[in-house]
Amino acid sequence: MSRTDLLDREVARAMSELSAAAKRGLGDPALAELVVIRASQLNHCAFCLDMHLAIARDHGVSRRQLDLLSAWEEAGDVYDERERAALALTEAVTVLTGGTRASASGGGFVPDAVYERAAEHFDAPRLAHLVALITAINSWNRVMVARRVPPGGRTP
Prior knowledge:
Oligomer: single chain
Pfam families: CMD
Largest sheet: none
Organism: Streptomyces asoensis
Structural class: mainly alpha
Protein name: Alkyl hydroperoxide reductase AhpD
Order of helices and strands: HHHHHHH
Radius of gyration: 16 Å
CATH class: Mainly Alpha
Domain Carboxymuconolactone decarboxylase-like: 10-91
Low-confidence stretches: 102-106
Strand content: under 5%
Helix content: 55-70%
InterPro entries: AhpD-like (IPR029032), AhpD_core (IPR004675), CMD-like (IPR003779)
CATH topology: AhpD-like
């Protein structure tokens, strides 16, 4: 059972609209699901993993890609260069420990090389939508993990 069932409807609606707009703008539903699943793996969000694995299958993401996603860097040609660039950016934005300019609190920035690699595969609008999608799923992960909503649990 979740810690609380309370999530303001207006907040949930805004987060859902952000997620949907980012996915539409990215224009690749299968890639969008790979991105949200990878972020959810990093954030240990079982609820989001359960939901987005099912959606990914519906969008035709292969079982092999889903099975190897946590080790995508070592998976050879299972992921193309565009997918690899998106997954690298997903990890950098989700974890925020890379980069060359560390803050006094020990945080970091998205490394320039990772961002530039993504920019080689996505035009400016799609790259903006990709960053928005990564940001949105990280927000959802944090909301669901903080509330301890289990897989298949009630959503706001």
